[in-house]
Amino acid sequence: MSAHHGPGHLQVVGLTGIGEVHDGDDVAALVVDALHAQRASLSDGDVIAVSSKVVSKAAGLAAAAVDRDEVVLRESRRLVAARRTPTGVARIVESAAGPVMAAAGVDASNVEGDVVLTLPHDPDAAARELRARLHELTGAVVGVVVTDTAGRPWRAGQTDFALGAAGIDAVEDLRGSLDTSGRELSVTARAVVDELAAAADLVKGKAEGVPAALFRGLADLVLPLDDPGPGARSLVRSGASDWFRLGHVEAVRAALGAGGVEPPPVVPGTLTERLDRAAAVALAAGPVTGGVVRREGPALRVEAADEFSLGALTQRVLAALWTEFLVGLVDRDADREPLAVLVRTVELPR
């Protein structure tokens, strides 16, 4: 990793005039032509950020829009969370392209005709090919970032991030260096390519038809031509480093063995609807001898054939209620109803 600590001056320029990109187009040539139209050219140490949309269009990665759900499932490697909406099921998934994102990155915006675009399965390879072609056309050794747009789990809105990268350090690792107070940094590792992707979006935009941007002032981050760098996939957390593999609802359902229950809606609905979903999840977790869960007003009545089964089913109900932002309070009259409990509910703060 380089010892880059931020330039004193950074220039970011949107490349206008590229126009609509079609299957088979030479994206590198379009970028070079756009630079020339702006009376500019590539120099060693420049970085080019290009929207994944134009990369996908040039690669012919289009599918019929009528099959969008099927395309999303095909481009998904793992479901993280799903919610029902008025128009279908919204899915957050681990995409074939690598990152976790909505609908596996399948997108219909800024696309001509009744089609959707998918992402390249190896975005880093696409960035390497674009870098090599830019060098072939101009002789310049540059860095390339292929950008896409995604939401973030803890913040509203979307931002661009690096889907693919080549010829540039993906992360600036500051661990071991000193901060301005002389303290040693032990955690800080800046995701440089993500920062570049977000900055590029400020000059590219989503509706202005400007799919690429030029950075000048980051030459110490650009790697030699024979070094492609670690790529953007190196930033994707996986295995033990992924603390958030499932949404909170999906995690509880998976632990109960009830992952096959229909996804909850985006809008939770009435208390009655939430109780019915919790009952369905508890019963779907596996057979319980004599097990019954039914709604009684603002509560759920749980019955079973023996004490052990009653306790097991009650615990399932309590866990299922939590996914509906409800806490269950268990009432039991063992003398009158030895094999039944009433689980009353209290709203959790949201």
TrEMBL record:
<keyword id="KW-0479">Metal-binding</keyword>
<keyword id="KW-0460">Magnesium</keyword>
<keyword id="KW-0342">GTP-binding</keyword>
<dbReference type="Pfam" id="PF01996">
    <property type="entry name" value="F420_ligase"/>
</dbReference>
<dbReference type="GO" id="GO:0052618">
    <property type="term" value="F:coenzyme F420-0:L-glutamate ligase activity"/>
</dbReference>
<keyword id="KW-0436">Ligase</keyword>
<keyword id="KW-0630">Potassium</keyword>
<protein>
    <submittedName>
        <fullName>Coenzyme F420-0:L-glutamate ligase</fullName>
        <ecNumber>6.3.2.31</ecNumber>
    </submittedName>
</protein>
<feature type="domain" description="Coenzyme F420:L-glutamate ligase-like">
    <location>
        <begin position="19"/>
        <end position="217"/>
    </location>
</feature>
<keyword id="KW-0547">Nucleotide-binding</keyword>
<dbReference type="InterPro" id="IPR002847">
    <property type="entry name" value="F420-0_gamma-glut_ligase-dom"/>
</dbReference>
<keyword id="KW-0464">Manganese</keyword>
<dbReference type="InterPro" id="IPR008225">
    <property type="entry name" value="F420-0_g-glutamyl_ligase"/>
</dbReference>
